[in-house]
Structures are given as C-alpha cells and as structure tokens.
Amino acid sequence: MMLAGAVIASLAGLAIALPHGKVKRQVSQLRPQYDFIIAGGGTAGLTVADRLTEAFPDKTVLVVEYGEIEYAAGLWDPPSTVWGGQGFLASYFSFQSLPTPHVNNRTAIVLAGKVVGGSSAVNAQFFDRPSRYDLDAWAAAATGSDGKNKNGWNWDGVFPFFKKSVTFTPPPAEVAQQYGYTWDESAYGNTTPIHASFPPYQWADYYLGRNAFTQAGVRTRQECAGGDKDGLCWVPTSQHPVTARRSYAGLGHYADVNLTRPNYDLLVNHQVTRVLYPNGNTRSGPPRVEIRSLSNNTFFNVRAKAEVILSAGTFHTPAILQRSGIGHAPVLRAAGIPVVLDLPGVGSNLQDHSGSGISWNYTKPGNFTPMPSDMLSSPAFLADAVAGFNSVPAYGPYTLANPNSAIFVPLPNITANYTSIVDKLRTMAAADGNGTVAAASYLPDDYRSDPRMVAGYQKQLRIIADLLANPRAPSQETTFQTGTALRAINLHPVSRGTVRLNLTDLLAQPVLVYGTGSNPVDFDVYLAQSRFLRGMVKTEALQAYGAVEVTPGEGVQSDEELLEYVKSGLVHSFMHPCCTAAMMPREEGGVVGGDLKVHGAKGLRVVDMSVLPVLPSSHLSALAYAVGEKAADIIIREWR
What we know:
Organism: Canariomyces notabilis
Radius of gyration: 24 Å
Family: Belongs to the GMC oxidoreductase family.
Keywords: FAD, Flavoprotein, Signal
GO molecular function: flavin adenine dinucleotide binding; oxidoreductase activity, acting on CH-OH group of donors
Distance between the termini: 37 Å
Helix content: 25-40%
Number of strands: 21
Domain Glucose-methanol-choline oxidoreductase N-terminal: 113-136, 313-327
Shape: globular
C-alpha cells in the first residue's frame, strides 16, 4: 500500500511537467467563451476548478494564472545545507509595505506564490487549522441584522470541508514512538490528493522546546485539528508521507486531474486586470473578464456564461476589484477610475500575524546530535541526508519543513491582566454620549470617516475582545524545532491596514499599508506575550543546560524598555495576510456575503483568504483549501 502510494506520488511529481502541452499561453488557444472563469490558479482557485470540472463535465472552466507551471520544492530541499534557509522555491511575488510609523518606520516583507498552485507551492508547509472559536467568530462577523449566518460559516459548517480537503497519513508506529507524535484520525477525511503527514525525523534537541512549554504550564493535546487547539500541538506538514515531497494545489488539484478533464483549461503568464459590466450596470452580470498577456502586453476580453470567481489572493483580488471600479469611491476617484460600485471594504481591513521573540545561549554543553550544524561539518552526514531524500520511503533531515511542535495559548493563560486588555477593546468599540466612536481614530486615514467601516470595526473589536477573554481561544502561537530562539505570534491583532492601487501604474503591484501597532492595544498584547515567552528560559528544561537570555537581555525589564525592544525587532508579517474583501454585511463595510458573491455585483464571487473578516489562530494554507472546498460546494449546489 505504501509503495503504491510512492509510485503514485512519483508519477504526480512528473505530471507537473506532463500537462504543459495542454496549458494555454495565448488567446488563440482559448475557447470563445467559458461557463466559469477563475482569476488566480492558487490554493483556493485550483480547488474550486477541480471540483467544478468534476461536478459539471459539460461545463467549461478557465483558470487564469499570473505565473507558470513549475516544480515546487519543499521548504528545505537539497542542495540547501543550512536548515531554515529556503531552497529552490517556485516563483513568488515579494511585497514590501510602506514604512509603518508606529514601529519605528519599519516595513513588512510579504511573499506570495506566483506559480500554478499559488502560496501552497512556496509556503513553509505548516498545516494547522484554526480553533473552533475562530470560525464561530467568523460567523458572528458575517451575520447580518437579520441574525442569520448564511451558508454556515462557523466551525460546524466548515469542519466537514477541512476533512474533505486533505488526506492525512499517520506515521509508522516506530516513528510515532520515537518522537511522541500523537493524532486523531477522526479529524481527517482521507479523500483527496492533498497530503499531510509527520516527517520521519526531528533534530536531537526537539524535545527541549516541548518540555519547556509543558513546564511553563501549557497543556498537551493529542490532536489540534479538530477544533480544540489551546495547548501544545503536533502539527503535520503538507507533504506526501512516502516521498516527503511538497504536496500542493498545483499537483493535487491540477496536474493529478486535468489530463482527464477536457473541460478544464489553464491559461498561464496572464494577468486578470479587471472585470467589465456593460454600461457599468453591476446587475447585468456575469461581467466580462479583461486579461493582459505578460509576454506581449496585449489585452483581450473573455466572456463567462455562468460566473466569474476572483481567487487572486489578499493583495491582488482587491486590486482587480478596484481597477474594475468596485471599491471605496474616494479611493477610486483618486486613481481616476469611474465608480461602478461603492464598496469601501475593498482593499481595507488588511490583517496579518506579527510578533517579537527572544533568544538564549547554553552555558553547559548538551552534546546534541544530530543537529543542523552537522550538515556543514560532516560530509558523510550530508551525503546520507541527500540519499535519504531520494529514497523511497524518504528519510533524514531533508524530510523536515517548518517545526511540527507549537503552542497555542489563550490570553488568560498568558497574563493575569488580560481583563484590562479586553476592557480597553470593549470601551473602544462603544460610542460615547455624542455618538463618537474612539476606535475610529485608529483606522487608516482613507476610511476612518466612513460610518460603514467604523461600524464594521466596532463589531470586529467586540468579537476579538470575546476571543481574548476566552480561556479556550488561542491568542499566541510559538513554534519550536531546534535552536535557541522562540517567537510569540500575535494571533488576533486589532490594527488594520490597506491595499490600494499604485497611482503611477494601475497595473503594477498594489501599495500595502501595514497598520502594525496603529491600535495601541496590540502593544499591550505584544508585551504580555513577550514576558510569557521570557519565562521559557527559566524552565527546568532549559536551565538544565545553563540557558541565559541573550535578547532582549536581563537589562531590559521595564515596560518602556521592553516596548522599544519589541518595536525594533517586530516581524510585521508571518506571511498570513487576509481580510481585504471581508465577508460581512454591506452596511458594515463587507464586500461579500455568505454565498461569497460580491455585494451588488451579479455573477461575481470571491474565493480566497481576502474573504475572512478577522484573522484566525492558524496559518492559512489548510484554511484556504477548506474555503475552496466549501465555496465549490455552494456553487455546485446553486448551479445544479
């Protein structure tokens, strides 16, 4: 059974090259029209394309992708010799935000996949899911004044699609026993060629972090993919269990299926620039799709008979909408674009995980082996590592990606002062006797005066306050695999940013404003998380080897000193941007409804991470697959 899986995976690896003859690269290769057109061949977009072409063999689907078909290496494949350094990744966009004044004018660097498969082809392969409380918070944000959560965007409504979206393979018994892996197969469905598994290898000091976490009072959970993840978790990697190669949408939802789907077309090296409604009438959809060839800079239109689905990601989906005249009216006018549909939430509400960290040295030798340094110091060890990577089944250090151990800690378990943080948010969200809302002053300048956006932000603050007060809802993530450093990731920031068109070149990459720290409550959380993290160095697990804090260092103790340390070393983005076309009511700044249709725009949906209203307590890859699966289910049920 396992060897059969290895053969399948090997063929799938080759398949990424085989469909090149079927891939479209110019307008002359396209059909006159399509039933469905999907802008973006990424994680969610390819999931939808796979399911639609399967469900409707008589309907045609066109996926338009900016990038190419490429081999997508894992996070750490040969010839890399320094652990944590990325190998030959597939192509990606590299975004840099404008300077952020609240954190010493530093900028955020964000990468996103520019390849068939999107960010699932270039991410760190950390395959966790949100807490059930995150999905229930999503439902609360999406609920309108009628009190209805349409289409079930809560934990119970999304969990079946998490199960459908991945095949989990438990590790061999001897590997599980060696490293202490635990799991619960009932959290998975095992029905799709998107794979997750635990690597058959860990560095020699991997257990130190886990021991430090438990000694700091963090509970241990058997499984964190079933909705409850407040504690110490084993997190699987998005890789095939036999070959240990990256498993991603370009394989599982394109190369593995498209050769048998004559109704499935993929156009690469093209950019969807905008959608066009006749005479600007958004009730006359579906719109035509304007596409630009990246090879010769020519433009052409393609017609969709059923609908258009934007799946271009958190940055590019709002850019397409804004170029189409769909967005915040003042922003569109500033860009010289006629207003077709005034939706101020387009490109607003930008959120991302951020956080600071600590480091330490050991003063007593641990003599751990094997360690990442052995890749450089021992030619024999390196040669065996390469041989292991090319074996079936694969073994050795090259089967690793991102850490598999992580803690997800609720704020009440981090600081006794959590109630003061929660109270600040609730006070901000309330209007005073004159109707003034304090929270509005922390919003970006170009939408703080819009009452719809203020109302939506008030709602989000109330929801996040409830999450932070919940002793079961994680607010901090910290991972560990090896080494002498830890980071605290703020899972529910309350600062907001924007994605706007580049006014000097509307077709260029959009301009990002990361509002990191614009709401001061985030700094209260950063400080609490940093102090909690510093306690790890004092645990018996690390003190057994004479751990001594290096950064921020014992000389940094006051809130003022620690705050300056946080500002100077903060990571603005852990590559999880979201929420720029939020699923919220239109009167609260929302862009899409529970059916993922753009408010007021017939025949136009959004299916990617831009539809999240608030950032969840997870990396976004597994969630993107689940959203793609649920979106496809909604679309299929509607068109049947």
